[in-house]
Write a structure and sequence with these properties.
- The structure is a single chain.
- By secondary structure, this protein is mainly α.
- It has a single domain (3-204), classed as CDP-alcohol phosphotransferase transmembrane (TM) domain (Four Helix Bundle (Hemerythrin (Met), subunit A)).
- It contains eight helices and no strands.
- The protein has helices at residues 3-23, 28-40, 42-47, 51-74, 79-103, 105-136, 157-169, 174-204.
- The protein is globular and about 45 Å long.
């Protein structure tokens, strides 16, 4: 919901961090893969109830996700890099509820499954519209440097990370917090579906 505002304010900071990394010879794709591996470390950490370690993996993953975009802007943005970034992000998002499910399947199973279903809704509406937005040349003024058309909503990247942090800080409340966030993600998926459909219908008309 506030990703566009945060993006504008964080971009100069991320650029300053990315510059020495680029000078050292690192590229955006390497940062994407490094962040992905670190982020997946949250899965076994959650499964074995090491919530502080999982939180660290999540935060480092999100930092790398910001840095890979900054590094790409400082060097060369590519469709291959944007594709890799999107794939890694969505797999990482799914890994977090799976970790809580593995930690306590009898307690967390239903809430984790509901959250994963809602993530499928937000992800599919996002990616499907991004493909057709590229086909029809739909502008994306809030995110001009993104490889894919970034469709907003009530729950975007910032809200998802806040939710992940809440899950790790108060794991005993996961069933309640995950259910609430899943409902919000479901609302986002429905609004994206409706708005995307109406937008494309108007273009075809």
């Amino acid at each position: 919901m506030i990703d566009a505002v945060l993006y504008r304010h964080l971009q100069p900071i991320l650029n300053n961090i990315a510059k020495p990394l680029v000078k050292m010879g690192f590229n955006a794709d390497q940062m994407t893969l490094l962040g992905f591996v670190i982020g997946l470390g949250a899965l076994p950490a959650l499964a074995y109830a090491h919530y502080e370690l999982a939180l660290l993996c999540i935060l480092l993953n999100r930092l790398s996700d910001g840095l890979d975009g900054a590094m790409a802007r400082l060097t060369r943005r590519t469709d291959a890099g944007g594709y890799l970034d999107s794939v890694c992000d969505f797999i990482f998002y799914m890994a977090i509820p799976l970790g809580f499910l593995l930690a306590a399947p009898n307690v967390n199973g239903v809430a984790a499954g509901f959250l994963m279903l809602s993530f499928m809704g937000t992800g599919s509406t996002f990616l499907a519209f991004a493909v057709l937005a590229g086909k029809h040349g739909i502008d994306n003024p809030n995110y001009p440097n993104k490889s894919l058309h970034y469709m907003g909503g009530l729950t975007e990247g910032f809200e998802t990370i806040v939710a992940f942090c809440v899950f790790c800080l108060w794991p005993s409340l996961f069933v309640y917090t995950a259910s609430i966030f899943a409902a919000l993600c479901g609302f986002t998926a429905l609004t994206r579906c409706y708005l995307g459909y109406q937008t494309l219908r108007r273009l075809e008309a």
